[in-house]
């Protein structure tokens, strides 16, 4: 089963809205695409949006959900809107920007790499990947592949992707917004780990003991 029509519409609408915010912040279509790096960033964004259409990610509450963590979604939504617009706007007015064209290209590379890492676990988990903190039907603990090293690769991908977006606009504001993603991400990780431990018990404890939470060798 592939992405539902509802999720497909949300994915397409979200991708286009995010790009539209950046174009508006940068001062219009001509101003945005005048930079080949920003054109490349837009192409990567669209490619990631298309790839997402072939996943089974969902927003199902499954068999059991930690509803107390839903506040994180609101924070992500607000930060996402700000991230879409402010780095581009700051770039346009040259507010708190740094570096040159090389920094922009580095941003494109990180944006693509982070986006790929963000989507990879969605393909691996299939319908078990939900936007909510929930245990899905026939939920199984995946401990191989990228999950054999870190327990939350999709969140690491989100952070790398956000850093890349910020650098594509040479934006210090974008890096601050990326840093603001960390507290709600940690809250969500803790909520997920508590739920998984309650579901899988000693199996999850053993898995957690041999892997990193987010950054290999650090966290």
What descriptive keywords fit this protein?
219 residues, mainly alpha, Four Helix Bundle (Hemerythrin (Met), subunit A), two-stranded antiparallel ribbon, 2 strands, 66% helix
Give a written overview of the molecule:
The chain has 219 residues and is mainly α. It has a single domain, classed as Four Helix Bundle (Hemerythrin (Met), subunit A) (Up-down Bundle), CATH 1.20.120. Helices cover 66% and strands 2% of the residues. The chain has helices spanning 5-26, 29-33, 36-52, 71-93, 101-125, 153-168, 172-200, 202-209, and strands at residues 64-65, 134-135. It has a two-stranded antiparallel ribbon. The two termini are 35 Å apart. One of its GO terms (cellular component) is endomembrane system. One of its GO terms (molecular function) is methyltransferase activity. Keywords: Membrane, Methyltransferase, Transferase, Transmembrane, Transmembrane helix.
Tell me about the largest β-sheet.
Answer: 2 strands, antiparallel
In DSSP terms, counting alpha (H) and pi (I) runs of 4 or more, how many helices?
8
Helix content: 55-70%
* CATH overall fold name: Four Helix Bundle (Hemerythrin (Met), subunit A)
CATH class: Mainly Alpha
Rough outline: globular
GO molecular function: methyltransferase activity
Subcellular location: Endomembrane system
InterPro entries: Metal_cation-efflux_comp, Phopholipid_MeTrfase
Main location: membrane
Question: How is this fold's topology laid out?
Answer:
Elements: H1 5-26, H2 29-33, H3 36-52, E1 64-65, H4 71-93, H5 101-125, E2 134-135, H6 153-168, H7 172-200, H8 202-209
Antiparallel strand pairs: 1-2
Helix pairs in contact: 1-3, 1-4, 3-5, 4-7, 5-6, 6-7, 7-8
């Amino acid at each position: 089963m592939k992405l539902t029509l509802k999720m497909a519409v949300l994915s397409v609408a979200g991708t286009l809205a995010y790009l539209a915010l950046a174009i508006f912040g940068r001062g219009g279509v001509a101003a945005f695409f005048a930079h080949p790096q920003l054109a490349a960033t837009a192409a990567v964004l669209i490619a990631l949006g298309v790839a997402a259409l072939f996943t089974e990610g969902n927003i199902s509450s499954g068999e059991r959900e930690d509803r107390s963590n839903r506040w994180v979604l609101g924070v992500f939504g607000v930060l996402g809107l700000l991230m879409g617009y402010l780095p581009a706007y700051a770039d346009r007015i040259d507010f708190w920007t740094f570096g040159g064209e090389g920094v922009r290209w580095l941003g494109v590379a990180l944006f693509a790499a982070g986006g790929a890492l963000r989507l990879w676990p969605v393909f691996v988990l299939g319908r078990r990947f939900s936007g909510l903190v929930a245990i899905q039907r026939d939920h199984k603990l995946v401990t191989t592949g990228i999950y054999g090293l870190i327990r939350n690769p999709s969140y690491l991908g989100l952070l790398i992707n956000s850093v890349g977006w910020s650098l594509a606009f040479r934006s210090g504001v974008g890096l601050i917004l990326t840093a603001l993603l960390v507290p709600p991400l940690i809250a969500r990780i803790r909520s997920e780990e508590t739920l998984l431990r309650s579901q899988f018990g000693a199996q999850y404890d053993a898995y957690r003991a041999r892997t990193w939470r987010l950054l290999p060798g650090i966290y």
